[in-house]
Amino acid sequence: MATMGTNIPAGAIDATPGHQTGQRFALVALTSLFFMWGFITCLNDILIPHLKAVFDLNYAQAMLVQFCFFGAYFLVSLPAGKLVGKIGYQRGIVVGLTVAVVGCLLFIPAARMQVYAVFLFALFVLAAGITVLQVSANPYVTALGSESTAASRLTMTQAFNSLGTTVAPFFGAFLILSVASVAGEQMTAADHASAVELPYLILASALAVLAVVFAKLKLPTIDSHLDSASDLTAGQKGHALQHTHLLLGAIAIFVYVGAEVSIGSFLVNFLSQDSIAGISEKQAAFYVSLYWGGAMVGRFIGAVVMQYLPAGKVLAACSLGACALLALTIMGSGSVAMWAVLSVGLCNSVMFPTIFSLALARLGGLTSQGSGILCLAIVGGALLPVVQGLLADQIGIQLAFALPILCYLYILFYGVRGHRVQES
């Protein structure tokens, strides 16, 4: 009988009670990671308007926050995939948490030096750690059970990711944006910059605790997913990108993350406009939490729905809904535009976990490499917000929401056809 800490084959969810207990415990432990990286990622939506004001940036310059954060995925994902293939998911998680701690601590010298570039470097290091976590945790969740319910299982754990993104705006508004609104012009640039020290020190402490916990835990390992990097080097399996559904899935991840991050990054500034809601940045942060909260609610619902409906069809329906809501955002004003853009979060809910699980289907020993490729595609969150920032500077923040519509149209294609596994 297998117990926690022993090797189990991928997909062996109900062979023995020991397997089930070990896998359930692993899933519970992993939810804390999904919560933390969701929290950290969404905190960027609060950091952007804060740093924009502190350093007097335009929209394109402010979006360098997302460029550096998600740019780390592009540079780190493939090396992380090889690392995880060699050391396993659990050790990969510990490495990712440790690097993330260093990134959080770098915000302290960044705030004291008052240099925008140092903030960007701190974000890059922090994101490098999150990248290793993503490469380790996402495929681990898909492997802890049957392949037929992988999308539902990953959607459920991603719901806790969304819980983190829902809580983060309140945390950021209270500890970061409230500094400007309370102190007003009496605060110096140094005082405003130092407002980020406490939040990221708290995050560093929490991540350090998690690193120690995961170093001590005895979690199941997935035999068929280990040493994929060695297999690839020996030329035994080929390359994951030879699987068309993975390649198209990587593009889907690219445009999805780009669209989701672009929308979230502009919400505070968009809702602050007089023609939309005309509210303060601190008040707008509350509505940002509704955007991410919609994703959380949708993921809990989607985890149940996809037990009965094909994941591809659910993905297609959600992408259509997102397109319609963004059309209202562009053409509407006031509360119509405001609630339309916030409701896109509900449509976003199942997209990442569904695309991720569909793209990793039937990869076997190539799963770690495939996960690295998909996490590399998260670089869409670095590039597309900058493109939307350039559009906002040229044609206005409202019309710039046309860019995410194009992204969701591709996701519609992937849900209808692109995800299908082609038999060799």
TrEMBL record:
Q: What is this protein called?
A: MFS transporter, FHS family, L-fucose permease
* Signal peptide (UniProt feature, chain positions): none
Q: Which UniProt keywords apply?
A: Cell inner membrane, Cell membrane, Membrane, Sugar transport, Transmembrane, Transmembrane helix, Transport
Question: How is this protein annotated for GO cellular component?
Answer: plasma membrane
Q: Which organism is it from?
A: Microbulbifer marinus
CDD domains, alphabetically?
A: MFS_FucP_like (cd17394)
Q: Please report the record's description of how this protein sits within the membrane.
A: Multi-pass membrane protein
Question: Which InterPro entries does the entry link to?
Answer: Glc/Gal_transptr_bac (IPR005964), MFS (IPR011701), MFS_trans_sf (IPR036259), MFS_TsgA-like (IPR050375)
What are the transmembrane regions?
Answer: 25-47, 59-80, 92-110, 116-138, 159-180, 200-217, 246-272, 284-302, 314-331, 337-361, 373-391, 397-416
Q: What broad class describes the main subcellular location of this protein?
A: membrane
GO biological process assignments: D-glucose transmembrane transport
PANTHER family, per this entry? L-FUCOSE-PROTON SYMPORTER, PROTEIN TSGA
Per the record, a Pfam family?
MFS_1
* Gene3D superfamilies found in the cross-reference section: MFS general substrate transporter like domains
Cell location: Cell inner membrane
Q: Which family does it belong to?
A: Belongs to the major facilitator superfamily. FHS transporter (TC 2.A.1.7) family.
Q: What's this protein's function?
A: Intake of glucose and galactose.
Q: Per its record, what are the GO molecular function terms?
A: D-glucose transmembrane transporter activity; galactose transmembrane transporter activity
